[in-house]
Design a protein that fits this description.
With 162 residues, the protein is an all-beta fold. It is built from no helices and 8 strands. The N and C termini lie far apart (33 Å).
Length: 162
């Protein structure tokens, strides 16, 4: 939907409102609202899936990023492993998520991975079964194709008010 002139309270589609940091792969990337290629992903932003939770919220804070080209923020998320820390910084707080699970390959249409309780629709044994505060990172795989999706999940493990 197009935002009218009075809709200035919501983050503008092309405007970063958080910073994602993943020390394991040396990543610092801006997070913007929406996952459009032209407005968000092709500008090197990590995109926030509409209708998923906000940082630190209950549910699933789900993000998409390019694997190759356009700053390729998610180029190396395949290297993440359980226990790795990911922080999301907003004006209000710094949220720490800890990587928990990885799904090396699923179909692009597997919407379960970004559900409130993330669980693959394609590989139903992969994911979670109970409510929580989750982070989902999605990108294309294998590299230089968009045939499948690679998914990394984490759980909220810390909040530091700013």
């Amino acid at each position: 939907g197009g935002a009218g002139a009075g809709a200035s309270s919501a983050p503008r589609r092309s405007q970063a409102y958080a910073v994602l940091r993943i020390p394991r792969i040396g990543l610092t990337a801006p997070v913007a609202q929406g996952i459009s290629k032209q407005g968000v992903l092709d500008k090197g932003y990590v995109g926030h899936y509409p209708r998923t939770a906000q940082p630190g919220g209950s549910g699933n804070f789900a993000l998409a990023g390019h694997r190759n080209t356009h700053g390729e923020p998610f180029r190396h998320i395949n290297r993440l492993r359980a226990g790795d820390r990911i922080t999301v910084e907003t004006r209000a707080a710094v949220y720490t998520y800890t990587v928990d699970k990885t799904l090396a390959r699923t179909q692009p249409g597997d919407s379960g991975v970004i559900a409130t309780v993330p669980r693959s629709n394609v590989k139903p044994y992969v994911g979670y079964r109970s409510a929580g505060s989750y982070l989902t990172l999605t990108t294309c795989t294998p590299e230089f194709t968009s045939r499948y999706r690679l998914v990394v999940w984490g759980k909220l493990t810390g909040v530091r008010e700013r």
